[in-house]
Amino acid sequence: MTRTPPRRPARLDDVQAEAIVGAPDPAEATYVAHETARALVQRGRQRSGDAELVERLVRLVETEGLETVAEMWASSPADTLPGTLWRLYVIREWVRRDPRHIVLNYQRGLALAEVAGVIAGVADAPGPEDVTNTADRILSGVFDGDLDVALDRASAFLKVIAAGSALAAESLDATNDELSAAITQRAGNLLNTAEELRRAAAMARVGALE
After folding, report:
1. SS3 at position 152
2. Distances (CA, A) of 74 to 33, 71, 78, 144
């Protein structure tokens, strides 16, 4: 028996918007994830062909809350716009919740000579405040800069943090093997996310991040 593919909604109507709070079907959830992500990026850059839809989707973020909408992006692949915005959202929340340790590892990372190589091509080393401010602007729909540059800077930031975390892990090797291993794994995860953002930036530069 031939299976009919899920229908892609033509527009996000009020009923579909309300479904975000509940449990929309997978096809609809994917559609809403991509459309909300696109709307937030296009609003700031004023490049949408449907200004009314963009405004409705942005209002959806404002009324339901960014956290609720961001959850819709969580299962999106890293090489998509909603997947990329999800990673920016997680970085923003992480910096807000643990600023002291992040700043400490950032400073440790900047002190390493090899860090100059991992942030090559970035105008200046982006700090925690710089990254979170940019993420705020993108996620609130007011960012009017180049998305690829913002993603490259977020990637560089994570690489600096990863370097600082690895240095902290080394200092713990002799006193706390278990904690050192956990920090080393975290540094590896940060590098993986940094690479995902770097690839997303490359896609954004050629208009392929959707």
Report:
1. helix
2. 9, 5, 9, 24
Predicted pLDDT at 59: 67
How many Cβ atoms are within 10 Å of 81's Cβ, its own excluded?
23
Last residue of a domain, one of 50, 75, 100: 75
Task: Retrieve residue 84's tokens.
Answer: 């990329």
Distance CA 40, CA 59 (A): 10
Round the average pLDDT of the chain to a whole number and report it: 76
φ, ψ for residue 161 (rounded to 5)?
A: -60, -40
Contacts of 183 by beta carbon, 8 Å cutoff, 6+ apart: 165, 166, 168, 169, 172
Indicate whether 158 and 115 sit together in one domain.
yes
Separation in Å, CA 47 to CA 31, 54, 97, 134, 150: 19, 10, 34, 19, 18
Render pLDDT for 170-198 as a digit per residue (tens, 0 to 9).
Answer: 766 656 677 777 778 888 899 999 999 99
Domain of 17, in residue numbers = 1-75
Angle, CA of 165, 159 and 114, to the nearest 5°: 85
Same domain, 80 and 26: no
